[in-house]
Amino acid sequence: MVKKKIKQPTPKGPSGMGMGGGNMMQQLRQLQEEMARTQDALGDEVVQVSVGGGVVQMTMTGHQHLQSVQIEPDILNPDDVEMLQDLVLAAVNEAIERSQKLASDRMGGLTGGLNVPGLSGLF
Known about the structure:
alpha+beta; single chain; 3-stranded antiparallel sheet; 123 residues; Ybab, Chain: A; rod-shaped
């Protein structure tokens, strides 16, 4: 009688990955920690916006918190409130866009531009 040698399956970790999956999990944890540090640091970074030839200026953090609004007194005209409203609106929107781009640039650098599932919407 001839006995056949049966090949045993490769051991799997708890997540169904091969035994090398632990290293991948460690790398993902490190990436997650680095992303958290980068996200925190964005609170210390600011973008500055100027519209209307500098008559309205705003400063916003990388967390999209408006820090300051400066309006030149010369622009204040009770007969033309709409112009000031339009300038403020334009400045706020531009500050938000720049702040979001700053966050995207910083966070995207960590993932090498990869679209990592589950990470969208974090930055």
